Amino acid sequence: MEEFCSDYYSRKPLLIPKCPGKFENLFGWKSFNRILNSSPIPHPTMIMALEGRQVIPTDANSIVERCREGASLIIEEVHKYDEVLGRFVAELAKEIGEPARVNIYFSQPMHRGYNRHYDTHDIFILQLAGYKGWQVFDATIEFPLFVQKSHATVPPAIPRLECTLEAGDVLYIPRGHWHEATAQVEPSLHLTLGIYARTGIDFMSWLTDELRDDVRWRKAFPLILSEDTGAITEIDLARLEHLEKLKELLVEKLSGPALLNDYHKFCIAQVEKVGPFAFPSQLLQVPSISRQTRFTRPSYQQVFLEENANLGMLEVTVWGKVLRFSMPAAEVLRRIFLASTFTGDEAARFAPELSWSDIATVLSSLVQEEIIQVQQT
């Protein structure tokens, strides 16, 4: 991993040779057909493309016919429709600290879905079945953004890397690197794992939202009246003075010791729970809790703990929620969020100064909010 980060990440493509059966328990034809057969037709995130053109199917028969004609079938954000993929993406996002998404591509031999293009995020190709030939070219614009004002339109002619993927192979393509692919011999099924790493622009977008709460940033620039055009005027000087004040405010904000901490908390708060519904248990009362009760916590769960000095409480940010607990419970909460499974008795030993009633109240609150679960026997 260290070699990948230092030599390849965001720099150059990398082919990782196959490992037989690597993705057998992740996704396959059965999972693919289950999603198609259990969703509206066409699937709400489905795209069909043939030689760079989008194909619009109307029903199941037309989807099959377009595939027979060579069209690729793509389901975007497929991890939202498959629990195994959903957990895989959540685990990865926690490990790398950046958002991730997965699309599935079903491609027909000797036909391209998309023409040569580049993505504005890093991608990993996980080949599940069949064979797919790839050509990867150098970037013509460094670290492109999706909403950038201009994009390069002329791709390089000579590829940096050419390969044919088979089941178990992985191909890494940095953002901005042009690429094109064609299935070989038989239908191909692969996952495209996109890493949406946050940039300085993302940070500044968050910071802009933060600054809206400061009245000094909401204050309008001085007006420039129509008769005051030409050389430097008093109004122009007033605008320059206003800008200088904003510069000072920005430097002050960027120098704040808690700024990066606040941004990290914001990023954690954006992480969504995999499988948000668990009826009817979500509507039932919290089961009775004893010292022998065993609890579990999802390994992919991302949590941010912070002491709120003004309120004298510990704030727990998780899955878009902010929960507050009294400070005496801080140690037991910190220990809980380091564990994936524990008993009520173990939780009590984390904070021996608290009574069992206090511990049970904390645990019940976490169960009620579905942050932890009671393990069924």
Give your account of this protein's structure.
- There is one protein chain.
- This protein has 377 residues and is α+β, with helices and mostly antiparallel strands.
- It folds into three domains: 2-195, Jelly Rolls (Sandwich), CATH 2.60.120; 200-256, no CATH class; 281-374, Outer Surface Protein A, domain 3, CATH 3.90.930.40.
- It contains eleven helices and 15 strands.
- It has helices at residues 2-7, 29-37, 60-68, 83-96, 200-211, 215-218, 234-254, 259-269, 330-336, 344-350, 356-368; strands spanning 14-16, 46-50, 53-55, 72-75, 100-107, 122-139, 161-166, 170-173, 177-195, 294-296, 303-308, 313-318, 321-326, 341-343, 373-374.
- Strands 1, 2, 3, 4, 5, 6, 7, 8 and 9 form a nine-stranded antiparallel sheet that branches.
- Helix 9 crosses helix 10.
- The mean pLDDT is 93.
